[in-house]
Automatic annotation (TrEMBL), chain A:
SUPFAM superfamilies: N-terminal nucleophile aminohydrolases (Ntn hydrolases) (SSF56235). Transmembrane segments: none annotated. This is Isoaspartyl peptidase/L-asparaginase 2. It comes from Stylosanthes scabra. Heterotetramer of two alpha and two beta chains arranged as a dimer of alpha/beta heterodimers. The lineage of its organism: Eukaryota, Viridiplantae, Streptophyta, Embryophyta, Tracheophyta. CDD domains: Asparaginase_2. Coiled coil: none annotated.
Automatic annotation (TrEMBL), chain B:
Heterotetramer of two alpha and two beta chains arranged as a dimer of alpha/beta heterodimers. The keyword NADP does not apply. It comes from the Eukaryota. CDD domains: Asparaginase_2. Keywords: Autocatalytic cleavage. This is beta-aspartyl-peptidase. The lineage of its organism: Eukaryota, Viridiplantae, Streptophyta, Embryophyta, Tracheophyta.
Amino acid sequence: MGGWAIAVHGGAGVDPNLPPQRQEEAKQLLARCLNLGISSLRSNASAIDVVELVVRELETDPLFNSGRGSALTAKGTVEMEASIMDGTKRRCGAVSGLTTVKNPISLARLVMDKSPHSYLAFSGAEEFARLQGVEVVENEYFITPENVGMLKLAKEANTILFDYRIPTNGYDTCGAGVESPMKMNGLPISVYAPETVGCVVVDKEGRCAAATSTGGLMNKMTGRIGDSPLIGAGTYACELCGVSCTGEGEAIIRGTLAREVAAVMEYKGLGLQEAVDFVIKNRLDEGFAGLIAVSNKGEVAYGFNCNGMFRGCATEDGFMEVGIWE
Amino acid sequence: MGWAIALHGGAGDIPLSLPLESRQPREEALRRCLQIGVEALKAKKPSLDVVELVVRELENIPQFNAGKGSVLTNKGTVEMEASIMDGSTKNCGAVSGLKTVVNAVSLARLVMEKTPHVYLAFDGAEEFAKEQGIETADSSHFITAENVERLKQANEAHRVQLDYTQPLQNGSKEERPNANGDVQLGTVGCVSVDSYGNLAAATSTGGLVNKRVGRIGDSPIIGAGTYASELCAVSCTGKGEAILCATVARDVAAMMEFKGVPLEEAASYVIHECMPKGTAGLVAVSAAGEVAMPYNTTGMFRACATEDGYSEVAI
């Protein structure tokens, strides 16, 4: 086998006018998380432990849209979701609708390890969190002033752009953004919050794992679930690979994106990068998204069809890269 | 070529000696729902309408675990979920955690057609239901005596039960099949290909007996319990957690798409080679008008019909 490999992302679809300082902050955070994962891998941690550790770090930092710093619902609250998958036995855990759990990815892991279920949501998930004794905080903890401002802009943009109750060309169904490449999920790129953070890892033993976490879509309807907690859509891991996606949730769900990468590897015999490229090219129709992936051979790959994706990757042979644009 | 339709009322450890009074109403119900679907297809209705129509009918029948007759959570409440997918456009809709909506599959369709989202759940979904003016009822409409009894037994056994057990009159051990004590379940679903070659799939359920409040299974998850593409349409039933991790519905379609395997083979492979015994079943149709209904449990309530006159109702 090829040794360990790790990739992280902080969302696909980046404002081309993002101030350089923000870009720098993002790259530093990605590098820090990569290094955290790398140290763990060097100490022989298993893939599933590493993905959880790294995503926790991303959730705790307010920079990206997960945990603290999550995008806000139409009501100005935070509803977080996450999923994690262990490739060796194809076990999975997912959570949605969290409002007080400090680290959603850890709760998803507990669902996988400590409950007879695979997916818990809303009040049931919150209850389970308390039973498990995970750290909980007030909803306000997750809300940042920046996102309060973004929500306001998003609402204004929506009033001008479209009333989704009236079917208009392309905006009323999933996979919007046809007319202008600078819109994602119906919002101008400047207010669109890249949706998600994620991490994929293959450890020294060739075991793959994947984890994804998000606050979801800015100004989403309460109760809206995106791709991040859906196994096969936002997250997938099996014996061959681990995948985490980000971008327009609806497009990722329709394209069952994460599973696709594994499926073309399995059924078409494609290699990792080939599979990633194939899926990005063919499975998104008019939707915009990106993904990161690792294979059990120690390879790492990423792809995106939108404007930029915050990402970082590293392999055991010393390769390391952090980037935002093409 | 030609239209084809298949539907299910749940796979599970349906006892081989299921008493007549339990068999008959279910078989008749399957027959009736099949007829409704067939009439609609003959009248040239599109697949998406057909699957919604048939699943609505199945939801309204108390003997199946969906809508009316949904199994109960650990708190004695109902939490229903459903999803629907249009194979020609890949548009899809899903809902979870519904307490008052009479026809979950119809709300899933509204999510697909009337919002920019794919999936709404719990309070948000209920709110949306009110806005849309869809039919709602209070919990007494959905809760049946049989399911209250199932919950009681599950509590006594401290089990989460996949629901196809009849409330036991005599503690017979027939339904104790697996080492883990789980018994098998309900869920309803329908897949069809219409005269124009359009495919659609829909699945609806109350979930697992004694499930933790907030538990989501495979039925509302696109790619797991439901999937439709231009090649085929699939609806699954069985142990939700297993179906989710194996993305069963998508897998059948992926094998057909990427390996060029025909429907029957793909469906059979996924169920018999990829899923642990006793965990899953599915119904599927292909664009060519073929039908497949494999299951690795003792039985699966199912029915199908094709344009050339073939039809079947079985357990």
